[in-house]
Amino acid sequence: MLTFKDCADYCDLSDDEIQGLLQGTHVSPIEVCALVQQYADDPRECRKMVGFLQEYLEKVERQADAKRAHEVHQAINHFVANHPMI
Known about the structure:
Layout: H1 4-10, H2 15-25, H3 29-38, H4 43-62, H5 66-82
Helix pairs in contact: 2-4, 4-5
C-alpha cells in the first residue's frame, strides 16, 4: 500500500511545497500530489501552482516570521527548479 509520504516523495514535493499548495488548491494532501503529477509537464499549470506558493509566502511574510518565509522561499525555488515554467 502506498502512503502519503511515498506519493510526496515520488512527486519530489517537500513538506513546505505541499503546505503552500494546500493553501491555494483547497484539496487534501494526497490530491495535491495527484495534481502536481497530473500537471507535471504543463507549464501553465506549473506557473499556477507557483502562484499558490507565492500567495502562501505572502501569508507567512505578513506574520513576520523571517525564518519560515525563508523556508517557503526555498520551497518555491525547489518547485521552479523541478517543473517546467515555459
